[in-house]
Amino acid sequence: MIVSWDDAYTQSVIDLWNEEAVKDGYKELSPASFEAIFLSNPYFDRSKTFVLLVSDQVQGFACGCTGDDLPLGDVAGYITCLVLSSESGSDENYRRMLDALEMSFQNAGKKQADILFFNPMLLPWYILDTPKHEHNNAPGVPVDSRLYDFLLAEGYTERAKQCAMYLNLTGFTIPQEIRAKEDKAAAQGYKVELFDPERHFGVKEMLNGFNNLLWQKEIGQCVADSVPVVIAAYKDQVIGFAGPVIRQANGRGYFAGIGVLPEHEGHGLGSILFFKLCEAFQAIETDYMSLYTGSTNPAIRIYEKAGFKTVKQFSIMRREFVQ
After folding, report:
1. Boundaries of each N-acetyltransferase domain copy (predicted)?
2. Cα–Cα–Cα angle for 130, 132, 135, nearest 5°?
3. In this predicted structure, what is the pLDDT of residue 299?
4. What pTM was estimated for this model as a whole?
C-alpha cells in the first residue's frame, strides 16, 4: 500500500535510507538532517511525498516537489528521490512509487517530470576513497544505480551527464603556465583578485549578462554580504567571477560557479579565475573541493588542469506526460 506522508513515518524512513540509499553513496540521515533536507524545506509537500507499506512496515520512500518560481517550474515537477528496500525493490514497486509521484505532478498541472540539479531539496553524498569528504548536492540520478536503469526502461530520456569532480587541496599550487597567463592578461588591462567594493564596480551588470538566475541571486547576495568572491576585472569593471570563497564546516570549499562575459573571453581568464579560487580556498585552510559540470562543458578542461578528477557521474533525466 502506498500512502501520503505522515510524520509518524520519519524514523522508519531514516532507517530505510541508511540501509539502502547509502549503497548509492548518499550520506546517512539523522533526525536533524532529515528535518533540514525534507520537512523544513519550503518546497516539501506532503501531497508529493509517499511511503510504501508492506505488512504495515515502511519499505519505500519517494519524494518530489514543485514550485512555479523554480527553473522549469511552470511545466515540471522535480523528482527528489525514490528508495526501496532490497526485499521490496521489484520493478512493480518502483513503478507504483513513480506513478504516485508523476500523478501528483499532473494533479498540480505539470507536463513533465525532471531529475536535475535545480532541485532545491539537496541530497549530500560521499566521495569514494576519501575520509568521508562529501558533496552537498546530487545533480541527478547516479548512473551506477538501480533507479537509473529503471527510469531508462520506463521511457525517461537522458538529457545530459553531470561529472562530479574532486580535488584534495593539500599541496595545490598554481603552475607557472597560469602565472604567465595572468601576467599577459594584466598587460591587457585585466586583473583577477578578490572583489573589493571600494575599487570594483559592475557586479550586477556582469551577473545579468550570464542570464543565470541562480548566479544572480547567490553571487549577488555574497557580494552584498561581503562574502569573498574571486573576480576578473577590466579597468576595475567586473567581467567575470569564480566562487564564492566559503569553507564549509565539513572542510569543503563551496563552489557556485565560474563565468566570464563572452566579450572578454580569449584571455585565459576562466583558467586564472579558477586557479586563484583554489588558492583562495587554501588560504582559509580548506581541505578539499568538489563540483559538478556537464560532460560536454568546455570548463571541464580547466578543472582537470587544476588536478580535479571525475569521481562519479549523474544523469539528468526527463519524461513528458502524455496529454
Report:
1. 190-323
2. 95
3. 87
4. 0.88
Backbone angles phi, psi at 233, to 5 degrees: -130, 140
Query: Which of the four pLDDT bands, split at 50, 70 and 90, describes residue 66?
Result: very high
Cell of 287: 581541505
d(CA 208, CA 231): 15
pLDDT tens for 179-193 read 999 999 999 999 999
Q: What's the CA gap between 94 and 84, in Å, rounded?
A: 7
Among 298, 301, 296, residue whose Cα is nearest residue 313: 296
Question: Tell me, what's the pLDDT at 322?
Answer: 84
Q: Count the residues in the chain.
A: 323
Instruction: Calculate the dihedral angle through the C-alpha atoms of 183, 188, 189, 192, rounding to the nearest 10 degrees.
Output: -40
Greatest alpha-carbon span in the chain = 73
Residue 64 makes CB contacts below 8 A (sequence gap 6+) with 45, 48, 49, 77, 78, 79, 80, 101, 104, 105, 113
